């Protein structure tokens, strides 16, 4: 685990919103669920109580994880970056050399990735393969279906829409 968690401003806000929701909605509901289940009697055979306590553990763990990531966040605004070299926040258009199919990905933080939306984590195999490369460079990416060859067709730094 690194000392910093790179993320976009939008990704940072989404984590803050999730933490706030857990603190203000999920956790109070969970406390109420525990009290209701406790009122049902014998705790040793009380599935509702066990489930509520398990949820409490999950929520507490997620709050700690979010607090750590937010405290160690390195917020990177893609629109303030430029150049032809691939780095965090870049939107990269790749040309698959065998099929000539184009794919476009934006490199974002781990909690922001969504491949269906074209956002990949900077820790993903694809992002690691293209980081620090420039427009015109060829890269080979190891995939479950074998190696694929790509040319970096374009590198831009655009606002990230969710």
Task: Describe what this molecule looks like in 3D.
By secondary structure, this protein is α/β, with parallel strands linked by helices. The protein folds into 2 domains: 5-75, Transcription elongation factor, GreA/GreB, N-terminal domain (Helix Hairpins, Orthogonal Bundle), CATH 1.10.287; 78-156, Transcription elongation factor, GreA/GreB, C-terminal domain (Chitinase A, domain 3). It has 3 helices and 7 strands. It has helices at 9-38, 47-71, 125-130, and strands spanning 5-7, 73-75, 91-96, 102-108, 119-121, 138-143, 146-156. A 5-stranded mixed beta sheet has the order 5-4-3-7-6. Strands 1-2 form a two-stranded parallel ribbon. Helix 1 runs antiparallel to helix 2 (47-71). The mean pLDDT is 93.
Count helical runs: 3
The span between the termini is 26 Å
Write out the strand line-up for the largest beta sheet, numbering strands in chain order: 5-4-3-7-6
Major sheet details: 5 strands, mixed
Q: Please bin the fraction of helical residues.
A: 25-40%
Strands, helices and their partners?
Blueprint: E1 5-7, H1 9-38, H2 47-71, E2 73-75, E3 91-96, E4 102-108, E5 119-121, H3 125-130, E6 138-143, E7 146-156
Parallel strand pairs: 1-2, 4-5
Antiparallel strand pairs: 3-4, 3-7, 6-7
Helix pairs in contact: 1-2
Task: Give a short synopsis of this structure.
The chain is α/β, with parallel strands linked by helices.
Q: Features of this protein?
A:
162 residues, alpha/beta, Helix Hairpins, Chitinase A, domain 3, five-stranded mixed beta sheet, two-stranded parallel sheet, 3 helices, elongated
């Amino acid at each position: 685990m690194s000392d910093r968690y790179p993320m976009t401003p939008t990704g940072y806000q989404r984590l803050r919103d999730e933490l706030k929701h857990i603190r203000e909605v999920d956790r109070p509901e969970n406390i109420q669920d525990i009290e209701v289940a406790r009122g049902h009697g014998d705790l040793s055979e009380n599935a509702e109580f066990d489930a509520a306590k398990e949820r409490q553990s999950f929520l507490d763990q997620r709050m700690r994880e979010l607090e750590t990531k937010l405290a160690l966040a390195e917020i990177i605004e893609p629109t303030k970056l430029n150049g032809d070299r691939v780095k965090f926040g870049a939107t990269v258009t790749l040309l698959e050399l065998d099929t000539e199919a184009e794919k476009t990905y934006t490199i974002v933080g781990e909690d922001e990735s969504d491949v269906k939306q074209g956002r990949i984590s900077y820790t993903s195999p694809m992002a690691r393969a293209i980081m620090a490369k420039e427009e015109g460079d060829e890269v080979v990416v190891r995939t479950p279906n074998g190696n694929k060859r790509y040319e970096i067709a374009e590198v831009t730094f655009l606002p990230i829409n969710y």
